[in-house]
Amino acid sequence: PTGVGKTTFGMVTSLWFSFHAKRSAMILPTLTLVLQIRERLEGMVKRIDGDVDIIHYHAGMKEKEKKEFFEKLERGDFHIAIFSTQFLSKNREILSKLKFDFVFVDDVDAVLKSSKNIDTILMMLGIEKEAIEKALMKLRKKREEEFEIGEHGILVVSSATARPKGIRPLLFRELLGFDVGTLVVGVRNITNLRVKSEDTDDLLDLLEKLKDGIVLLARDEKTIKWLSEIVEGAGFPVGKSWENLEKALEDFSEGKVSIIAGVYSYYGKLVRGLDLPKRVKFVIFWGTPVFEYFIDMEKAPRFVIRRVLFEVSKKNTKVKKLLQIVDRSDIETLRNRLKVVLTEDEWEETIKRIFARYRIKERKLLLPDVLTYIQASGRSSRLLGSKLTKGVSILFETDDAVFESLRERLDWLTEEEWIDLEDADWETLLKEVEESRKEEKKEFMDVKSTLLIVESPTKAETISRFFGRSSTRRYKGILVHESITGDGIFLLTATRGHVYDLVTEGGIYGVEVENGKFVPVYETIRRCRKCGYQFSQDLDTCPKCGSKDIDNKLDVLKSLREIALEVDEILVATDPDVEGEKISWDVTQYLIPVNNNTRRIEMHEITRYGFREGIASKRDVDSNLVKSQIVRRVQDRWIGFELSKKIQKAFNSLNLSAGRVQSTVLGWIVKREEEYKKSEKTFTKLTLENGYQLEVEESKKSEIVKVLNIEEGVEKISPPPPFTTDTILSEASKKFRLGVNEVMKILQDLFEKGFITYHRTDSTRISTAGQMIAKSYLESRGKREIFKGRNWGEEGAHEAIRPVRALDVTDIENLVEEKLAEGISKNHLNVYSLIFNRFMASQSKEVVVKKQKVSLEVDGDIVEIEIVSEIVGDGWNLFLPIKVFKAFEKKNYRVVERKIYKKHTIPLYTQATIIEEMKRKGIGRPSTYSKIVETLFARGYIVEDSYRRIRPTQLGKRVSLFLKKRYNRFVTEETTRKLEKLMDEIENGEKDHQEALKGFFEELKNIMEEV
After folding, report:
1. Exactly one of 57, 264, 590, 758 is catalytic; which is it?
2. CA–CA distances in Å: residue 762 to residues 577, 613, 733, 798, 922
3. What is the pLDDT of residue 850?
4. 9 and 157 in contact (C-beta within 8 Å)?
5. pLDDT tens-digit map of 139-151
6. Which domains does the chain have, with CATH numbers?
7. Catalytic residue at 758?
8. Predicted TM-score (pTM) of this structure
């Protein structure tokens, strides 16, 4: 990320190598930086009275100077060579023949654009062309081949925004052991101010307040020239970057001018090439940096076409095929095919709908260029010594739509907030700006290093964005993201789930008994890379397929222990539940011998806010939660293994299994099918002339339905609560025809990518922070009046499932299209939309409706119905629409359509309703709902019919009957419910876990004794 001292590190390292008679190259993106770095390096050499031969090249040099440079370069008669990326591209032949001990590439973006540049840099390090070709072959064929690359130099690449594409950037990983990082936005200490004005008098008033250290940016040269004239006319000296950049920078650096002015563009010289932490304090934008996209069908770019097709495909299946090839077709062909599947009116209507909150001006869509804003504003907040300087970014923007678009994207990438100019505390702000730039008295800076361990690589990737991930390295099989921040160095890595499991052999199914105490024996988890089989036996080969290609979690633990020796502090941030607590316990116990400064933190949302909350509540691992998890695992093993043995013997099949909870649920499913078969009845559906469809029992022949009585009234309807695990699994499964296990994986992704709060929860509580998200969203949409914050429950560890930002599904779709969010599928968007709308409804006021209670006579029978006939006052219905029927009048209604059919009054379970039943009866936990259903499917005990209803198989029925006849007392609802209560008591420290194990052991003996 910008401002952490990458370039300074490159300079100091080059000097160190020069003192050891070694050669270095510094490759920089712009002429400005080549000159700046040469000057800074020469200044360093003077201060230490060193003898270092520094050569540099830029196009503005005299011919004689250029000739001298090339002569020294080719002879190798130098210590440090400084040149631009452009020079690298034009002089590959010369450079690839030289050998450098250290190569520093500042801003690797330009290098990555050319595969030849990558090859040249690798050869500059001393890696032969043959080795590069072998590495490429290995990558293309995905083979595990080993080859020698010999001794080579060191490469450091830096970038704030690198987005490596293609196969060649992978050579860095293959040959040098590191990956070039993707987009990072991290270490910043910036206050963002908005000025809703385009009056230059307001600009002059602001300059009077700021006085010095100002970068003034506008969208084009014409505008910045006009502004500069006004500013100079008011007595402020301005350095004009468009006239003479080198002189403007020199004057600004030396304090001869208080303002340097230029144009903002992503690769602009003031946006990327300015590194003056003491001088740059304020960045002023005259207007928001924006991209402009044509929205006419015949001119629309690929991005707009893809966005329209995606939206239309939700209802129009014809466009799905076109959507699949949108990135492969040339743009003209795409536009022509577009006209075949969409009318002009459909196109215009879709454009208006999906870009309703964006500014469209002169048939162009204006989207904020948030990365340019971040890059440019970041010039004011850089690492200076051990401190991060305070910066202020001021945006003059009158257009609310453009500003809101920028604000949302900045919130997604940096979680920075905005302040209106009139709300700024200038005295405090200006003091912070100056204080952060004062010279430090300490000779050495204290740098704290922290290792943060999570269980999921996706979670590690998301958290690394908070700090601005500067690099990723592979350390003996694990990926470690490294970041340098104002608070020190952060290393992030993942265990990839549990590291230990109960052994399967020895003792009582892996549990020893010593002096009357039960001692579970754990071994590191192994997984066969060939067949995927997982086991916890101390074996070097897979017990299933015999392969020796085994992934052992012991290797992960050993790597973590070695990294633990490097750091001052270790934080374990696994999921905030008993499973996460057990992983934390296992990891900390292994690491404490080498680093006892090890703590547990909980993150209930993967955001900067969630991280800060976790850091503020560091704690030791909760041994009661760990004991609860161990007891659950042991009882699962004991009861499950023993019941499974009985079933396997009875049915002569080793593929069968039984567990307490899954057996209880299987019993429900078998019983429900029996009830279903007995519940068939005849029904008639009558469609009345007013459109109302009335379902009544038995066959009805009447042509008329008579209204006997109507009661009308106005009511307030409260919203439903936000989602818990069971309700979102049920709702998403029903609505999108997804299996509950698939929904659970989607929820895990949304949590780990930083979209929603923790998804394994039975709480409906909404925190104050959550309520403020709803309020902020409604205010941004002009609907502040319907906000009604509700907490929905007592204060506790968990919240309901809710979004962590004020972004609806359309906002997320736009982030995905703009490549600001990745790895999000249509199913992710669907589930997120459900969560968002339910949450927003829960924080909106009641809906005022007009209701009718109507008494109808059908073939002499009285039928009572209740309908909503009118919405009197909007509220939560804006997010969860309420069905409104045409009001009844007191008269006879003709039957316009009749349908007589048979129907079962007791329905079969679906994946959704079985989850609801488990929650209602207190069986299972949020973390186990989907696993239980998945296991029943995997064992062949249940199947889904064509209507996605769950039916027991013949095997399932026989197994359930067997368990019911012989072991019923171990798998009843009541027994299983008591188990959950017992787990709660152990978690809360109310029950001794050894006593609980003793009780389960007695159960186990009873099962063993059954013949």
Report:
1. 758
2. 12, 21, 18, 8, 11
3. 97
4. no
5. 776 555 555 677 8
6. 6-163+171-176 (3.40.50.300), 190-291+369-435 (3.40.50.300), 296-354 (no CATH), 449-621 (3.40.50.140), 640-679+908-1009 (1.10.460.10), 680-718+847-904 (2.60.510.20), 725-842 (1.10.290.10)
7. yes
8. 0.77
